[in-house]
Structure formats: C-alpha cells, structure tokens
Specification:
five-stranded parallel sheet, two-stranded antiparallel ribbon
Length: 847
C-alpha cells in the first residue's frame, strides 16, 4: 500500500490512500486520449468516498491536456443548461466555427441569442463539435463533478456526447454521488468507488489523529464509516479527547452525510465572524464567480484577510473558480448562518450582479433576499420564467414561478402564478410538485375558469402518470366545465381526451373513444385555434361517428397542416403525438415519421419530460417498422431515464417490438407476459393491441401460424386508431398460411376499408400483398409486383422486405425457382441488414 498526499492551501490531505487501482484506470484513460482514442468514465460512490479528490488528482496528472471542469450544484438543478455552460465556457472561442444550425442552437441555449427553444439534438451535436474543435491541437480532459446535481438537460446532453465520442483526443469523466435518484448516464463505462480497506483506513485515521485513540473507538469509527475517507478525517474531530480515549464512539443512528456535515459545522465555529461571512458569500454564489464574490465582500465590508483565514482551514479554495472542498462544506456554511445573514448576502449578490448580463441570476438572488412579499421581485422572477421557457428550460421556469408565487401578495395574481408554476412542473415531469402547487391555487379567490383549469391539470397529471382507464372521463368532465368559459381551451381538452381514450383503448372506463367523439361533435366552434387543430378534432369525431370514408379527407388535410408546422418548427407539443398517430392511421408513413421526430425534438428541446416518454416510445415503434432497429434501440435508454425521472408508468412497448422483430423468443415472450399484465392492470388497452400485434409478428416470422393468428385476432378486435390495421395485416398472413381463407378474407375486407379511404402507397401496398396471399395465378403475381412497387416508394423497408419474402415463397411453390431465389435473396439481405432475425431465418429456410 502506498501513501499519496496532496496539498490544498497548505493543508495536507491523505484522501488518496489505497487508491492505486483506481489511479491505474485513470492513467489508462489519459493514455488512450493522448493517443487519439476517446474515453468516458462514470465514477460512482457515496458522499465523501473520495470522488472529488480522485478528479483533482486526475487533473494534476493530465500534463499536456487542456482541461474543462463543471460541478453540479443542487440549487441550480432547475436552471437549464447551467452545467453545460460551465463545461463549455472555456471552448466558446470555437463557437463561430460551428455549422450554422449547431451554432444557433448552442447560442440560444446559453442565452447568447433568442430564437425560441433550441433543438436538443442540435445542442448535443454542437457540444460534440465544440469539444472536438477544442481538442484539435491538444488533448482535452473534461471533468464533471457532482453530476447527480446537473440540470436535466445538461446531463442528457453530456450523455448524448459521451455516447458519440469516437476518435477524438478527449477524456470525459463524471463523478456521481450514490444513491442517485435520476441518472442519464446509465450504460456508460463505470468505476464504483468504495470505502478504503482496513489497512488503508487505519493508516488514514492515524495520520489525522492529534493523539492516541482507544482501539475500540478506532475499530468502531472504521466500521461505522465503512472506510469512507472524508468521514475518517472529519468524524474524529467532532469527538472529545475523553470520547477518543475512553471508548465513547459516534452515534450510529445518524446518517453518514449528516454526521460529516455536523463535523464541518463544528470546525466553522472556530473561525472569526468575517471568515465565516466570506465563506457564506461563496456558498450563496453557486457559480463560483470570483469577481462577484469580491465585489460582494467589498460591499459587505469584509476585510481582505478574511479569505486567507477561511482558506487556511482547507475547506475552501478562492482561486477561480471558487470551490469548496466538498459540497457538504457548502451546505454546512449555508445552514450554519442565521436567516438575517443569508438575506443580507443574497441582497448584496443581487446588487453586484449585472441585470443586463445575467438578469436571471440577479432575480434569483433578489428572491432569496426577500423574507416577505414583493411584487417587483415577483414580476422579475416571472420574466425570468418566460426567458427560461424560450430557452427550453421548463424546469427552470417552474422554479422561477414558484419563487414568484412566494413573493406575490395579490391573491388573484398569486393563484394565477401558482397555476402557471403547476403547469410548468407537470410539463417538467414533477407531478407531485405540480399537485402541491394546485392546493395553493384552490386556496385562492374563487374563479370559475381557474377552477376548471385546475380540474384540467389534475386530469392531465392523472393521464400522464397512470395512463389509466379513468383518464378519458376526467378530461371529458374538465372539457364540459370549460365549454361556457373558454371554447378553445374546451376543444383542446377534447383533443386531450381523445389521446387518453386512444391510450386506454378497449379498457376505457366508464367512457371511451365513442363518448369523446360524440361530446366533441357537440362542442362549440373554435375561435382562435389553428386550421389544422380544428380539422384534427372535427376529423376524429367524424372518424368515430361516421367512419373512415367521411373522415379521411378532413384528417389528411389536418395531418398535412401539422406536418407543415413541424417542418417550420411550429408544431404544438401537446398535439404532436396525436397528429402522428392519425398519420399512421391514415397510412401516411412520411408524415408519421416527420411528426414523431418533431415530437421527440420538441419534448427534448423544451425539457417537457412529462411528454418525452410517450414521444420516444412512438418514435421507437416507427423506427422499428421502418427497419431501423439499431436507431430504435438507441432511444430506449433515454425513454427509461425519462420514465424514471418523471415517475411515468408507461409500458415498455419499445422493448417488446424490438425483441419480437429480432426473433428473441424467450426474451420476447417474457416481455410480452410482463407487459400484458402491466397494461391490463393499469387500463392501457392500446398496450394490449400493440403487444398482441408484436406477438403475432414474432410467430408469423417463426412460421407458427396458429399462435400468430391467436394474437393477431386479439390485436384486431378493437379500433384504437392505427393499430387495428396492423392486427388485420398479421391476421391475413397467419390465416392464409393456415388455409383459413374465410378468416383471412374477412380481415382483408376490413383492412380494405382503411387502405382505400386514404389511397396511399403504404396502405395500398400492404393491401395488395394481403390480397395476393389469397389469390392465384396471374392475379397473385400482379398483386405481389404491385405491392413491391408501391412499398418501394415508401420508407417502410420492413414491409417491403416481407413482401419480397412472401412473393419468393409463392414463386417457389409455383416452381419459378430462379425468380424465387431473386426475391428470397433480396428479402434475406434486407432482413439481415435490419436485424429482423425471425423473418430472415424464414427467408434462408426458403432459399
């Protein structure tokens, strides 16, 4: 065992005892980056286990590297792009060299320009390009400490970058305190940092003890701290000499982090008033801006030598950026100050912050400086919320609005701001926080419209979190209450009820899609709604009440309008999923894909985590059916992280469709059973339809047509907007292969109502393939060729490959073997390239 020591402002630390193996990992990471191979590492461990000390050592060892560092701050978790700005600030000299769309997106994210919410994908690409440019002349080390406290969009963007680093001389290292409730960094290479072994722990404890320690106390301290280096250094300082000498150890009933923080608080008591005040200024100014700190200190009358006294403790380093030895030090400093001291420091920081350069940070400090209501500051916070929304920071907007609510005296305005804050919290994926804010709204003055909006938001939260069978009824009730008060909002609510009814599907209770359609048809005319939005509601009502032939022209026009808005970046986040689902139901593959992409892009760009899981799930399904299985799989991690972050109970249908297409029989069946139980228990009937469709597709691929037909019939038993057609398609193939022509013909007739109403190449191509399966001779041959021609003009490579397969099988039975080999080989190559294993195996068997 070696002993490694470091110095911080003259105070010797022995935090790196026994870390030889971890340092070898870091050495290899730097060596690879120096050689031009990127490396990523996520260091995980409990508070005080030595993550920050290791990162400091890594920076010192990175000779010849440029370094960039960011530190997550708990109080800044709601400020969109705050962490990313820390990391990228030293490289912004390369901003102008980025491609235009990337430059504009990053400039908007960092508040350098105002062009609406930035495209999250473009921001990720911009950061990747920026870091790559910064590493051109010299390897680059990027260190992100306390990554568990990064704002969500920064964490997601850096995870995006980490997964795409390839041959750049860049090392990217994150440190994450465990346990961590939300982690966007899952799946990246990890190093788990544990407590020191007994020998290293004893050596470390002995090195910091001022005198002898009773053996039983030593063993108890080591056991209770689990070898945590920071605890081993700090806890003995909180024990008296008698406790150390005579066997009275620390209480094991207090959480370790609390005990460490208490030890820091005791050490602060030895400092004079001015030294504690300069540390309080640093604790309140989380950005580590030395200029602001010295300005505030000067205004507060803190003498210059106070910083030297504070630094001598080893708990803080004033060299820019200002850094505490550990986040628990910052917490101890802030909590140990009186309310009056904290208010005075925030008031001073607000005064020295330039309102033109950083209006939002100034507003935040002004708010923290207020112990009572203040409309001027509340209004400033509301304007900060608007700016945050424009940069895509829904969570930041919610935080500003909540502070604004606290400072608002007028009860009506307070209730309105609380409702806006609740809406923002809901959109940011914090349903419990949103519900708590609604209690403040309801405590305000009576107002019919506001009360109806509260009902609406409660229904929206129920729909987003539970996806349950009661959501349509809740939304219908809210819509009825809104009709006499706000006709446009009522119509919007009917559309949300349609979304809920489609998701609940056959399990809707007590009201389903038919009840929503009837109520929507009787709704008052729109006043300010866009033409596309008006047509969408009218078309859906027609679809359910009068059938596809009547609704198709209206819905096609609506979809085209939404697609135009999506291309212009104007699509409304609330309706992107429904518009995409209608496009799918209309067999419009291009609009479906465009709207799925727009939905995901907009949900990411605005930080609307409440809507992101369903957007990602739809995109995974659309990409899977296009044969882009690798791209679909890449989205699954993000979908899981979004589900975890928001507490959304959304069935893993993306996993199911990928497993079934890949022919993973055992995994697919296990996923199907779990998913069917999940969606049935929660009332998500659409999940039943999609799950049984996936099962039918799996079994058709494996030539198990009896099982395929059983699942396909269930999938096609209910029309929940789009998926019925998929079930009918699998029914025709399975029944035709079993020789059950009556069942196949009945399904084909039902399918034809849908395909003929829209007349697209996708719909008519699938119909032609299904009709060919029930035809003979020249008619079958003509239909197969028509299907290949039509599907070849679409993005649906999976449907095209399956058509080559069934045509090849038919040609083989017709003894036209040369032609059969051509189509079977094409099918096999396409399906293998996509990774659609079961159908590829079926094609190879025919060959």
């Amino acid at each position: 065992m070696s002993v490694t020591t470091t110095l911080m402002n003259g105070v010797r630390s022995t935090a790196l005892l026994g870390r030889e193996a971890e340092r070898r990992v870091f050495d290899a990471l730097l060596a690879d980056a120096s050689a031009g191979t990127s490396g990523v590492l996520v260091v995980r461990g409990e508070a005080g286990v030595g993550k920050t000390a290791l990162l400091d050592e890594l920076e010192r060892d990175a000779g010849g590297f440029r370094t960039a560092r960011a530190v997550g701050v708990e109080s800044e978790m709601e400020l969109a792009y705050a962490g990313l700005h820390q990391l990228c600030a030293p490289a912004l000299e390369h901003l102008d060299a980025l491609p235009g769309p990337q430059r504009d997106a990053l400039a908007t994210a960092f508040g350098l320009s105002r062009q609406g919410p930035p495209d999250r994908f473009m921001v990720g690409l911009a950061v990747l390009s920026l870091l790559s440019d910064a590493a051109e002349g010299q390897p680059l080390l990027c260190v992100v400490d306390d990554a568990q406290w990064l704002d969500r969009v920064s964490a997601q963007t850096l995870a995006f970058v980490a997964r795409r680093l390839l041959a750049e001389p860049i090392a990217l290292v994150f440190a994450v305190r465990e346990p961590s409730a939300v982690d966007a960094l899952g799946g990246l290479p990890e190093l788990t940092l544990r407590g020191l072994g007994d020998d290293a722990a004893r050596a470390l404890l002995a090195s910091v003890m001022p005198g002898p320690i009773e053996e039983r106390v030593r063993d108890r301290v080591i056991a209770e701290t689990g070898g945590n280096p920071l605890a081993l250094v700090e806890l003995p300082r909180s024990l008296s000499a008698a406790e150390l000498a005579f066997g009275f150890g620390p209480s094991g009933g207090v959480p370790l982090a609390d005990r460490i923080e208490e030890g820091f608080r005791r050490r602060l008591e030895s400092l004079d008033h001015d030294a504690r005040r300069i540390m309080l200024v640093a604790a309140a100014e989380h950005g580590g801006d030395g200029t602001l700190l010295w300005r505030a200190a000067d205004r507060l009358g803190i003498p210059a030598d106070a910083a030297a006294a504070a630094a001598a403790t080893g708990l803080i380093d004033f060299a820019p950026p200002v850094r505490f030895r550990h986040p628990l030090v910052r917490s101890a400093v802030y909590r140990s100050a009186s309310d009056g001291e904290r208010l005075a420091v925030h008031r001073t920081l607000a005064a020295v912050t330039d309102p033109a350069v950083d209006p939002d940070r100034r507003a935040w400090h002004r708010a923290r400086a207020q112990a009572s209501v203040d409309e001027e500051v509340a209004g400033e916070l509301a304007r900060s919320a608007d700016r945050a929304q424009s940069r895509g920071g829904v969570a930041a907007a919610a935080a500003f609005l909540e502070e604004s609510v606290r400072l608002t005296a007028d009860p009506v305005r307070r209730a309105e701001r609380a409702l806006d804050a609740a809406q923002a919290r809901h959109e940011a994926g914090a349903p419990q926080a949103a519900l708590a804010l609604l209690s403040l709204v309801e405590a305000g003055p009576a107002d019919a419209l506001r009360a109806a909006r509260v009902d609406l938001l409660r229904a929206q939260i129920a729909s987003a979190t539970r996806r349950g069978d009661d959501a349509p009824a809740l939304l219908l009730r809210a819509a009825g209450r809104l009709e006499p008060l706000d006709a446009d909002l009522a119509r919007d609510t009917y559309l949300e009820a349609f979304i809920a009814a489609v998701i609940a599907g056959r399990l809707s209770h007590p009201m389903g899609i038919a009840e929503v359609a009837r109520a929507a048809r009787a709704a008052p005319a729109a006043v300010g709604a866009s033409p596309a939005l008006k047509l969408l509601l009218d078309g859906l009502a027609l679809l359910v009440t009068e059938g596809r032939a009547a609704a198709a022209p209206v819905l096609s026009t609506a979809v085209e309008g939404f697609r135009h808005d999506a291309r212009a970046g104007l699509v409304d986040l609330r309706w992107a999923w429904l518009a995409g689902r209608v496009a799918q139901d209309q067999w419009d593959d291009e609009s479906w894909e465009d709207l799925c992409e727009a939905h995901v892009r907009l949900a990411r760009g605005t930080g609307a985590l409440a809507r992101l899981p369903i957007a990602l799930r739809s995109h995974i399904i659309s990409k899977s059916l296009r044969g882009e299985l690798d791209e679909a799989a890449a989205l699954i991690g993000e979908a899981e992280a979004a589900n975890a972050a928001t507490g959304t109970q959304l069935a893993p249908l993306g996993h199911v469709i990928l497993a079934c297409l890949r022919g993973e029989e055992e995994e697919g069946k296990a996923l199907l059973q779990a998913t069917l139980a999940d969606v049935t228990g929660r009332g998500e009937g659409n999940g039943l339809s999609i799950s049984h469709y996936c099962a039918a597709m799996l079994h058709n691929g494996m030539r198990r047509y009896d099982e395929a037909l059983e699942h396909a019939r269930i999938a096609a038993a209910y029309d929940d907007l789009g998926t019925i057609a998929w079930g009918l398609t699998e029914t025709v193939e399975a029944a035709a292969r079993r020789g059950d022509t009556a069942t196949a013909a009945k399904a084909l007739a039902q399918l034809t109502e849908s395909t003929r109403a829209t007349g697209t190449d996708w719909g008519l191509g699938v119909e032609a393939r299904c009709r060919a399966l029930l035809s003979e001779g020249d008619a079958a041959d003509r239909l197969y060729r028509e299907a290949i021609e039509r599907l070849g003009r679409t993005r649906l490579r999976l449907d095209l490959a399956r058509t080559h397969l069934v045509y090849g099988e038919w040609l083989r039975r017709e003894r036209r073997r040369a032609e059969a080999r051509e189509h079977l080989r094409t099918a096999c190559e396409m399906l293998d390239a996509m990774g659609v294993a079961a159908f590829a195996a079926r094609a190879r068997l025919e060959l």
